[in-house]
Amino acid sequence: MWRRTYLFLVLVRLWFALSPSYLHPDENFQGPEVIAGQIFKYPVRHTWEFTSENPIRSVFPLWPVYGLPMLLLRWLWIGNGNDGEIPPIAVFWTLRVLMFVVGFVLEDWAIYELIRSPRHRRLAVLLVASSYVTWTYQTHTFSNSIESLVVAWCLVLIERIVGSPQESTVLASTVLGVVAVFGVFNRITFPAFLLIPGLRLLPYYFKNPLSFLAIVTAGLFTTGLAIALDTAFYTPHSITWSDLIHNPVLTPLNNLIYNLDPENLAKHGLHPWYQHIMVNLPQLLGPGAFLLFTRPQLSLRLYSAISGIVVLSISQHQEARFLLPTVPLILSSVRLPKSEKLTRIWTVSWIIFNFIFGTLMGTYHQGGVIPAQVFLSKQPDATQAVWWKTYSPPIWLLNGKNEVLTTKDVMGLAGDKLLAQLTELATCDLPADRRSNEYLKEKKGTYLVAPLSATWLDGYLENKGHDGLRFREVWRYKRHLNMDDLDFGEDGVWNTLERVVGRRGLGIWRVTRTCPERRGSWR
User: Fold this and answer.
1) Residue 290 and residue 334: Cα distance in Å, rounded?
2) Is 398 exposed, middle or buried (0-12, 13-18, 19+ CB in 10 A)?
3) In Å, what is the CA distance from 494 to each residue of 293, 486, 487, 489, 501?
4) What is the C-alpha end-to-end distance of the chain, expressed in Å?
5) pLDDT reported for residue 167
6) 366 phi-psi bin (left φ>0, alpha ψ -120 to 50, beta other)
7) Where in the cell (predicted)?
8) CB within 8 A of 419, min separation 6: which ones?
């Protein structure tokens, strides 16, 4: 029975991997978009992490995770006799499937190795496989998702080293050295999860210097390689040994220095020290958090999760996705309630929680952003796209269209200022275009992308020609929820939910303005 349940949950995970939800801009801007600009000819936009004087993001982990699959995909594309570049959306879905496969294989395999009891192993695998975090976050291209896999496999390697004969630990120690450095360059939060588990290695390496030499040598070599790749990426000219010695780019150090400055963290939002424990962990675990405090099973996995939570709680900027590595570690370290009745109640609540959050985060959360970019990439007249009250769209998905299409992300700009920008960018209104798709033959066109829940626009959309602007709806996508538009304080709970949920969806309007010089030419 449990095998059939597990296979069903794998299919659920695949379904969500192939859903276009958009959980956070970082899933594109901190990974795929950077490498896509290196391998393909897609014009891309590098965020501040890559363009600042002291860059804080390493490209070293991006190459094996995203670069190699993209290179393989390009080789297959050219090998099949195709001309031109691969459509970016094909690369996008390939990476989603890749994240599904990597998570399905490596995460589940790690749990299988870390738990020796067959009965507890089956429970742990099912709990992790049925978590909406596994369905959604782990199938998206987050550095946090990669961090989850790296943490899990470091724990596997630690268990192998401590519990194996001496002659078999040199290889495991070498691999651990490579993987650990990879984890640090992927995210500087990574060592927090190995503070307690790493203590088990100290007495072992004291007695086995050869294995210690192996992990140190592998770590130093990998560090040198990572620094060389980062220095080559961020240096505008071909690097020399002098650059590596005198001007190396140390992205983990830059990242640490940046995040130790409270003024920098304030730009991204400050949180109380208990944000992770009281808000983020229950948001990720739901009813699983109840078992963590009532039915924990002490293990290396749980110690790893605890050390990570404690260290990350010191930081004043705390996002839920920072705790992704703790989810499989905690769910594999809890037991069900002793009472059969409580177990049934807990199981039902677990299913309901993950169904709701899986649907919300895996299907509806900013779900129209990716399809909207694909639509705009096919609009021949699009030269200006204004995105309002959405997440920043991935530029590389425009399939080269961004050479002529300027994307303006105005975030939550005030309505009157939005109209001012649209008035400045809008092209002249042609009455004949209102009855057909003749506008597609125009050389220029301005488009507004906004959630349907943005009621401020209603008066302008209904009153055509108001303030000289005309909005023509050309595209609509219903599976989109704008969770950043919740305003319970001003609108009240019911009115806010009625607006955001009841009017869910994302729309695209072609915006034109009345031009006096053209008024008399269409009589």
Assistant:
1) 10
2) buried
3) 33, 11, 11, 11, 10
4) 73
5) 59
6) left
7) Endoplasmic reticulum membrane
8) 460, 467, 469
